[in-house]
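Supplementary notes for students who missed Thursday's class. We covered one full example, reproduced here. Read the sequence, then the structure, then the short commentary at the end.
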Amino acid sequence: MKTLLTVTYTLSAMIFSALASAAPADESAPATIVEYRADESLKTERHGLDVHVDETSLARLTSEESIVASGAPGTYVLDTSIPGSIPLALELKPGATHYVHTRLKMYGNRVVVELVEVEEQVARTQLPEDTNALMAI
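Structure (token representation):
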């Protein structure tokens, strides 16, 4: 019984020590954006688009591909090169990962782009297996 109390006391002291010495969240840790295209139709899969971050071209995104970018925390505006797409403003928090599903739809001969921020669980079911290398934003 004495050994059990000693082990319990030692483990409690180790856990308390680890919690007390844990560093606060690093406010300068980079944030990550994963932007992807999924669930394409035959009409939209042939269309490629450029992804813009704050009006600067980041990369080209084609059907069933993804872009992974990392940068300083702050507010960023995502847009595409397709005319009429509605920009998406993201507030990036330190160390957080944000997932953006880029949806393309065809109405006649017009392409409509919708940028939607999704939860990680949704993104993991839709994210293409071919994820590109990390880029800086």
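Commentary. The beta strands are 31-36, 49-53, 56-61, 66-71, 74-80, 88-92, 97-107, 110-118, 131-136. DSSP finds two helices and nine strands in the chain. If anything here is unclear, bring it to office hours.
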